[in-house]
Amino acid sequence: MERAAPPGSLRGSPLGRGWLFPAAFAAQVLCLGKAAFPKQAFTVSRSTAFRENPICAVGGTLLSCSRHYWSQPTHGIGRFRHLVPAQVAKKLRERLQMKEINHGTDYEYGDLNIEMTAYDMCLVEGYTRYVHKLCNNLSIRVTRSYALPTKTTEVMLVEEMGTKMHLDAILTTHRRVIQITSLSATFAPILLEILHRNQPEGVHLLVKEHTEADFKVRFKSRPELEELMAKLSG
Amino acid sequence: MAAPMPGLAVHCGFWRGGGGGGIMAAPTRASWRLLGALCLQRPPLLSAVLTPEEEEVAQLMQQWETERSRLSDHEVRYRDEQERLRHPRDNDDDLDRNRVVLVQDLEEIWEDKFQKTELAPRLTDADKSNDRTSLNRKLDSNLTLLVKQKVGDQEMWLLPQIEWQSGETLRSTAERALVSFLGNCIQAKFLGNAPCGLYKYKFPRAIRTENSVGAKVFFFKALLQSDHLSKEERKGDCIWVTKSEMEDYLKPEYLKQISRFVVDL
Question: How far is A8 from B206, CA to CA, in rounded Å?
């Protein structure tokens, strides 16, 4: 006897429906080929029986296939929104953290920027990685680690030996910044010394406090906005 | 006591007896005399020589990376020029080729320049003569300043120290010590307000009074910025030594305490 087998019978039905097809039955059903399914769709409906007793004997439910869509076992088969975590709306503008200095026996620095500049990208990135790992191991909180845009400098030498020659050299300056917070003043000299001793040649190290200007440098300039502002004020 | 962070358990041992309060507070115990001392270091000017294994690894990595890397602009240009030389096309102007500087010529010019430049030697004259008063010695390691000072009756070699006066911070004591031994024109960068080490000793019984049982010396670290020191400004005997050479000059107990914070990284 051919039995109707709604697709997805092996999976647990959605909440609220409460039918579970026994595995053995499902296995039997799966043996039928695909061609079997369309034929099953138009058998005698026994919807009345369902409304009275939705959780009824298995054999009974399978005999009739046309019932209301919300009681069909495939209802809600495409639902996935309930599984996706809710998306928090992204804040377009970040707010600066206020500097914190505790006066007293415990002195702490607020946001400090460790800036590393070099012409050689591998050196500066390797040093950045080292500093970041060092701070992690010493339990210093690293809030941000970012790169500033590369500046390209063209070095032109004009030699005047009869014919003018332009000797070009292209130098790229790479800058990497690591931002740390709550560095205690008693530990700061030790950290600075470690950074200084492990500085590779060619890398310039600068440790300074984070200011709003540093924050603004990272944004791209918007010429249209600036024009409009100038028009408004002027 | 201001205990900073768990990772610093090693360094907390430096400050026995309320060392953290030494920054701003007046002495609560009048029995110890306080002195501020300065550990002035000249950082290395050259990187250390690689050991044979490091040298091998560096060469291997260089070779491996060169083989795996893409061609640079210079190499691409060289390759194109070689192709053009091998198969000269008729549409190329002869004039054009004469004006363009070939990559080979450029490389020859660079090679000439390289041969003409002389690199300064690693071992300077001061190294050969072992002149410990000069800063030109041992360019690849740290040099610390040691001064000959009169302490009590004896003349000893130690890190420059000066007695603390009430009303000033210990760090300014260290700065005063710097100025008194090396003159005003020195540029030294202090790394922080906190001392890096402590040495306390008791006076011999003959000198001990009620007010001064002994002395506590707080050390501050500073890095030397200016390379050149003029000889006239130096007052007293100053030498610049590496950590291993310090054993010749310092007393063993003093050396033991100092070597805790003078690190040869």
Answer: 99
- Band the pLDDT of A206: cuts 50, 70, 90: very high
For residue B46, the chain A residue with the least C-alpha distance is A201
> What are the structure tokens assigned to A225, written together?
């906005």
Count the helices and strands in chain B (H runs, E runs): 8, 8
Taking a C-beta distance cutoff of 8 angstroms, is the pair B79, B236 a contact?
no
Question: Residue type for A174, please?
Answer: H
Cβ atoms of A62 and A4 closer than 8 Å: yes
DSSP B25: P
Using a CB-CB cut-off of 8 Å, the residues of chain B touching A186 are: 2, 4, 8, 20, 192, 194
> Which of A105, A106, A187 is nearest residue B8 as measured by Cβ atoms?
A187
pTM as predicted = 0.68
SS3 content of chain A, % helix, strand, coil (to 5): 30, 25, 45
pLDDT in tens, B5-16: 333 333 333 333
Express each pLDDT in B198-246 by its tens digit: 888 888 777 777 777 888 888 898 888 876 666 555 666 788 888 888 8
User: Do A165 and B11 count as a contact with CB atoms less than 8 A apart?
Assistant: no
Rg for chain B, CA atoms, rounded: 29
Tell me whether 0.85 is exceeded by the ipTM: no
The helix-helix angle for A188-197 and A121-137 (nearest 10°) equals 150
